[in-house]
Amino acid sequence: MLLAYLCIILCFTVAIAQSDQGLSARELDSLLQDYAFRAFVRPRTGIVFDGNVPSNLTGIRVAALRLRSGSMRRRGFLSYKEFHIPVGVIEQPYVIRLVLVYHDLGNWTTSYYPLPGYRFLTPVLGLLAYNASDLSATNLSELNIRASGEPISIGFAAVESEPNGSSLMCVSFRLDGSVVFDNVVRGNTCLTTVQGHFAIVAQVVAPAPAPGGGGGPGGRKRRSRRAWIIAGSVIGGAAVAVLLFVLLVYVLRCRRRKKMRRMEEAAEMGVPLPMTSVGYTKAPVALETRTRPFLENEFVP
Ligand SMILES: *[C@@H]1O[C@H](CO)[C@@H](O)[C@H](O)[C@H]1NC(C)=O
Ligand SMILES: *[C@@H]1O[C@H](CO)[C@@H](O)[C@H](O)[C@H]1NC(C)=O
Ligand SMILES: *[C@@H]1O[C@H](CO)[C@@H](O)[C@H](O)[C@H]1NC(C)=O
Ligand SMILES: *[C@@H]1O[C@H](CO)[C@@H](O)[C@H](O)[C@H]1NC(C)=O
Ligand SMILES: *[C@@H]1O[C@H](CO)[C@@H](O)[C@H](O)[C@H]1NC(C)=O
Hints:
The chain is an alpha+beta fold and 301 residues long. Helices cover 32% and strands 26% of the residues.
């Protein structure tokens, strides 16, 4: 019975967890590389092409820009959406031409880049570099790019007004999974020397996240699912604990009852006293007094 109950709880939890399907941020990068490259219908170098995303990712914007690596290093690229590529950005390993893929995660920001304790004041923007030799390639791995002179800057177009009393910070999500915080410059700009994903955030002061605080609808859905999982686990755990307790009490009581019976049996066999039932208990009865009172006569006639 206990086992069946446990199984039900487990199955319930697994079912909830499985309904929370979705890509990891890195799988999304790979998918968006594919969709950004498809924007090169008539590829030209030095022109920004906006791409389309599948309907299940509506709200995300992608773009692709092909550059000769020598040109990128010597001249930079003044304005690629919000990104400013300065002189001196080099890639590794060396390729003749590269594609810079741009992401704007829009309302999917908190779904792919959850950051507990912080509120996003801008969407997450990404800049990733790929080998441009094969524009129909999928599942490409990123090149490393590095700003050897001035840093790359990201001038966010609109920064939500900062919540009371908290200061703004730039956050960068590196491809290796690390998260780095930095200061905001000129009110809306973040600086970086490497590729990755970037946003401006504010620390949440209140312990409870404000309703709609930075969360896109997806983020909220995911959070409520997580809350469900936690609630389910807690209730399930409590139920199991109660069951175990009841079982323990039952076992103990059984054992005590057995011991009592054994003692009773021993008593019945070991003591030759005749027993009689008084109600539900047995009690020894003396049929006759064994030591007869013995009158000590003090009067000796
Ligand atoms: C969206 O659909 C594409 C196919 O059109 C699929 O490859 C991708 O995994 C889907 N993305 C999500 C987040 O479900
Ligand atoms: C870039 O792609 C081309 C063609 O697929 C390949 O020959 C070349 O080795 C790649 N370069 C790097 C650095 O991966
Ligand atoms: C993509 O490449 C990685 C290694 O770079 C590999 O593990 C993965 O299976 C590939 N995925 C697909 C769909 O080809
Ligand atoms: C910020 O805090 C001050 C005082 O603590 C309060 O008067 C003001 O209404 C707050 N503003 C917002 C937007 O919460
Ligand atoms: C983002 O908005 C689009 C509509 O503009 C919607 O289809 C999509 O589901 C939203 N994304 C999330 C994560 O809610």
